[in-house]
Amino acid sequence: RSNIAILNYLGLALAAYIVIYALPKPWLLLVALVPAFFSIEPVPHKVGAGELTVATLLVLFVCSTFFYEFKNKRVANIKFILISSSIFLTLISLSCLHSIDRGISLETWFRAVAPFLLWYLIIPTSLVLHESFDYKIKWIFIAFGALAISLILFMNFIFFHNDLYKLFWLDQNGVKFFNLDNLRDLNQFTGPYRERITIIFSQATSEILPISLVVFLLIALFEKRQYIRILALVISTIALFTILETFTRSMLLSAAFVFIILGVWFLFIDFRLAKKYMKMMSILVISGLSFVYALNIESIWLGRMGVLVRELFSVQKIFSSLKIIDENITSRLEEYRIAYRIFCDNILFGGGLGIKHNMSFLVSGDHYLHQSVAYVHSWVFYWLMVGGVSGFLIYLSLLSLPIITALSLDSSDKRIKFIMFSAVSIMSFYALFFAVFRLFTFNLIIAIICGISVCILRNKKTFLVSQKIPLIRAPQELMT
After folding, report:
1. Closest C-alpha to 210, from 168, 252, 157
2. Cα distances (angstroms) measured from residue 56 to each of 59, 335, 429, 435, 440
3. What is the DSSP letter of 478?
4. Taking residues 390-400, what's their average pLDDT?
5. Mean of the per-residue pLDDT values of the chain
6. Helical H runs in 120-194?
7. Nearest to 416, CA basis, from 134, 158, 161, 182
């Protein structure tokens, strides 16, 4: 405990130093803010040192950015701040009034809306990137890289330190045994079992893992310096291993889905690039298969994927009373039915942020956990449920903005083009089957990518037409 306390004090001292140093330069506060999210839970239940640090950096970043704009009397930016802030506050106020009108308490509404308040970062992010775009975007990527690498390494430490790759048996007292070779009475043991890291570490289902897998491979693909190319490919490979350790199908499939899109895209625009891409993909696939068989987890992945394929091809089960083999699929389909019923009660505005419904989840054997929850494992059904058509369209616009911006970029800006497209595509696909869209890091990434998009769109004429002061100076300098 004393060691943890010392680390906490060192972290607070470092945060204080960063704040003092970065106050005159608001964009540095944003760079410091991103890795600070590693110190908090995906959905914090209390306010600790980590939460206070993140909250302080958030407030200081927003206030110092706006102060800088008002101090320099940038009329266009001040108008942008006032108009966009008014729109944001109006939407938040309407959401609050609608939820209260639907019988939802103010506390419940605030817990539901809290992660989405990070969308306000779109405004200051777009402003701080207005100058020296390529230099600042490089450091923002480094900040996200630090967050991703911290999460990946920490998860692997937990996985191997706790022997989560090993099968275990339980005796009558619930004590774990990893080896029964020297025991005589085997009838008193049940098993074998394998513990999932997603059960003991809440951040194990983070969207950062599939994003890291794809984005670091893209860095390796476009990077000219060999040592960075090798390092990026290694990190991408370790990210793949980490995903395989979680046994989370939707996480792996979201990355695979984007990998396929990128492969087809590269074939059409540059055959040599496509060949290089396929070589790297071959390394990933071979490494992933080797890892799976080395840990003897191939049966789990084959079983989970096999069940998923069988259920997908049995579409009639969705509309029938037949029992579905996979309990995860069963619970999700039930969630979708409930969300659809709530949506039908108020098609235009939904049931309100914070609306709850009863769900039962299979824990083990025939034991079920009964909970009253305020989420659905799909961003589509969630926003239809809480916001109706209007809420769904607002969220769809938010996800579409970076995609449209990325596609509109000149072909010379390949790195930022494919990174923005891949990150948002992975998040959109993954969140179709997992409730990650309600996590703070998910909304932080959405806010910063949308902030980058707004900055690009506000200055599109400058960096696409002007040859004197381009926003993005040269593709080989971007994020290197």
Report:
1. 252
2. 5, 36, 32, 27, 15
3. T
4. 95
5. 83
6. 122-128, 133-161
7. 134
409-419: average pLDDT: 80
Q: Dump pLDDT digits (tens) for 242-279.
A: 999 998 889 999 999 999 999 999 999 888 999 999 99
pLDDT tens sequence across 85-106: 999 999 999 999 999 999 899 9
Query: Is the per-residue pLDDT at 184 higher than 80?
Result: no
Under 8 Å between Cβ of 262 and 418 = yes
Picking from 68-72, 158-162, 309-313, 474-478, which range would have the lowest pLDDT averaged per residue? 474-478
CA–CA separation, 301 vs 298, rounded Å? 5
- Segment holding 364, helix H or strand E: strand 357-364
Dump the DSSP string for 252-315: HHHHHHHHHHHHHHHHHH-HHHHHHHHHHHHHHHHHHHHHHHHTT-HHHHHHHHHHHHHHHT-G
Q: In which residue are the tokens 């939707």 written? A: 250
d(CA 183, CA 170) in angstroms, rounded, equals 13
Q: Which of 143, 31, 35, 1 minimizes the C-alpha distance to 9?
A: 1
Alpha-carbon span 213 to 252, nearest angstrom: 10
DSSP 464: H
Query: Tokens 């290694």 identify what position?
Result: 234
- Long-range CB contacts (< 8 A, 24+ apart) of 132-139? 133/455, 133/459, 133/463, 133/471, 133/472, 134/471, 134/472, 134/473, 134/477, 134/478, 134/479, 136/27, 137/416, 137/452, 137/478, 137/479, 138/478, 138/479, 138/480, 139/27, 139/31
Selection from 136, 226, 205 nearest residue 377 by Cα: 205
Determine the 3-state secondary structure of 247 from DSSP: coil
